[in-house]
Amino acid sequence: MKTTELQSVKQRYNIVGNCEALNRALDVALQVAPTDLSVLIVGESGVGKEIIPRVIHDNSPRRREKYFAINCGSIPEGTIDSELFGHIKGSFTGAINDSPGYFGVANKGTLFLDEVGELPMATQARLLRVLENGEYIPVGATEVRKTDVRIVAATNVNIRQAISEGRFREDLYYRLNQVPVQMPPLRERGEDIVLLFRLFALQMAEKYHMDKVVLTDEAKHLLMRYKWPGNVRQLKNITEQISILSTDRQITPEILARFIPQDQETTQLATIHSEGEHSFENEREILYKILFELRSNVNDMRREMSTLKKQMEDVKGNAPTQITPSQLSTLTTQLSTVNSQLSTVNSQLSTVNSAEDAVAEEYVEPEIESLNLNDLSRQMLEKALERNGGNRKKAAAELGISDRTLYRRLKQYGMDK
Description:
Elements: H1 3-12, H2 20-32, E1 39-42, H3 51-58, E2 67-71, H4 80-85, H5 101-105, E3 110-114, H6 121-133, E4 135-136, E5 145-146, E6 150-155, H7 159-164, H8 170-176, E7 179-182, H9 192-208, E8 214-215, H10 217-225, H11 231-245, E9 250-251, H12 253-257, H13 280-317, H14 325-362, H15 373-387, H16 392-399, H17 403-412
Parallel strand pairs: 1-6, 1-7, 2-3, 3-6, 8-9
Antiparallel strand pairs: 4-5
């Protein structure tokens, strides 16, 4: 796309920024707009995904038809089928009239399904049928209806992970993802962060008839170092707070730091260490995490080998009297191999224990004279769960272990209640 065309689109939709990833997303949207292909927009919450379907609709042959934006995550699961596909009178309590639903009302137009990853599995099956042949059945109805709707969907969840966990249909993902559009997070947009701050500050100044806040060069650097977990939405909120609450119109790093969250458990400033500085705390956490996973793996191997050894001994003990010397020799050899492998596993566990002692001795804390890995593992689990509000999947991801391993450890430590 020519630069002049791209700038024209940005001016029309009040899009600020020149980063390559943003330009590429807009370019894809404009190229796919004249078609009827389904589009899946992927990006973190707050990056501005909602602007892409508007660009697609306004530059498509359907631009004179209706456009609806629907947040799938905000509709209760019990009513979402009725909202999307409609219902007939008397199909459920409160259905006092027929309703065509969004797919009926938006016929010939465009539907933007935001947070499509939150759809229930049953609704996903209905949506797949609409995408494949334009057919759907309203709640409580028996006849099939047809619709011609362009679908643009967006999500901030990892759809492939949701598929592996059984929360999203793989066939629906491929049907929605005919053309993918990736929206970049704000932290990867470089100078765009300063441009957006300037825009939001100008909007506040014009709206409330006040002097515009301006960043110093040092404050700009600090603004660009922040990780922006809430992306553009968070930047706008902070700019508005500064515009209203700051008595100084020249914003220095000290003033800016008062408005940027400093929670160390989440994402905030990307710390730049001076040369020669070393974080023993981070190194210790890494070593403990490695030992935690290694200990778990070795224990699993030992249990499996012990089970196999018992099975081999049972086979040998219950062998029929007519067993041949050759068969007995084979069983004896197999049992010997198992014993050898079990000895190797026990040796590995001993190595892990030694490493545990070495780490605990090197990184001893004032209030803890000695560390036991089982106690440490329990503490790590407790802290990970606390940091993630009790969400086990997020805690497992933070620890770098599988969900099954996490659940097994919780049960082992009596924390599965």
